[in-house]
Amino acid sequence: MQIPLMDLKAQYNTIKAEVLDAIQNVCENAQFALGPAVEAFELDFAKYCEAKHCIALNTGTSALHLALRALDIEPGDEVITVPMTFIATAWSISYVGAKPVFVDIDPVTRTLNPLKLEKAITQRTKAIMPVHLYGQPAEMDAILAIAERHGIPVIEDAAQAQGARYKGKRTGSIGTAAGFSFYPSKNLGAFGEGGALTTNDDKIAERVRSLRDHAQSSRYHHVEVGYNYRMDGVQGAVLGVKLKHLDDWNAARRRHFDAYRKGLAGSEKLTLPIEPDYAESACHLFSVETDDRDILCDGLTKSGIGVSSHYPIPVHLQPAYSHLGRKAGSFPVSERLANRCLSLPMFPEMSAEQIRFVCDSISRVDQGAREGVAG
Predict the structure, then answer these.
(1) Cβ-contact 348, 253 below 8 angstroms
(2) Are 179 and 60 in contact (CB under 8 A)?
(3) Is the pLDDT of residue 370 over 70?
(4) Backbone angles phi, psi at 216, to 5 degrees
(5) 194 vs 20, 83, 237, 320, 325, CA distance in Å?
(6) More exposed terminus of the chain, fewer Cβ within 10 Å: N or C?
């Protein structure tokens, strides 16, 4: 049986007629850059996130970048985030000339550890950027309480958390602003690149709308250095269609998440992801931890099962950030997860049979490894 890590074709086949009709409407009306489809999606996604504003952008990286620009963060400032994330989190900080300051993650939630946060704050700290890793919301109340004491805004990196909730609140409505990615593999994925910033702050929303479109106050009148970060009309149309299905798709992911936990409960070699009582994860990834990652990865690949590591090298150990001087051992929890994480297939259209096959295959790999050691 061949099981991909994700199956975008399967999802496309479920909405093909609906999405092609939406794309055709954009094409026939030649509304290719921003336009009505993007505006409609912005209104719908803001409502979905329970936020006042949504500004559609070309990528999630741009969303985080413009959140920092809108807060006037600049060279010499510091922004706190985690080292266990996709590199784009740190890129956004570097793009404004600020310094990424890392705080280790909690070993259970895999998100920013609030107990380590306050020690990292200095007079130069101008923002805190927790990451809702794998769709699991960070412990926002504790983070916000610390941030409020120090007068520091909090930007949610919600790239993997479309539809997640923290204590009943949607991700994207909790911090000062939030950045979402609509890369095709995300729970809500475009037919190409896409992103959005959500916020309840009128001034941030107004500035980001300007910055994404070359900082124009009126046509050909540019009030500051801006960017070409606009979402195109086709992506707005596609996302508008897909948003209507997101809750159903996330519910399917949750069923798969629970099925994996039940099917793998007997494995002594795996540490399984959990969901804290305060959270409703988007279940973007089902990433297990094991000391035998290479063996498991090889065995599952040979069985036709797609797997991946998210992410095998934490940001502080990337060559691009060697100038920060953080060596191996600086953030042990993040490094342990990076060395042991393996993401199993996770997409809404998975069947119970496919999940059983993955679980059975893991058992066979474990059994083979035990027999090999015994032999």
Answers:
(1) yes
(2) yes
(3) no
(4) -90, 125
(5) 18, 24, 12, 24, 33
(6) C
The tokens describing 97, both together, are 């000339």
Distances (CA, A) of 206 to 178, 201, 247, 255: 15, 9, 29, 39
Please write the tens of the pLDDT for every residue from 172-196.
999 999 999 999 999 999 999 999 9
Distance of alpha carbon 321 from alpha carbon 315, whole angstroms: 7
**DSSP annotation of 136:** P
pLDDT tens for each residue of 255-287: 999 999 999 998 989 999 999 999 999 999 999
- Could you give the CA distance from residue 165 to residue 21 in angstroms, rounded to a whole number? 31
* CB neighbour list of residue 151: distance below 8 Å, 6 or more residues apart: none
Distance of CA 130 to CAs 154, 157, 197, 248, Å? Answer: 8, 6, 15, 27
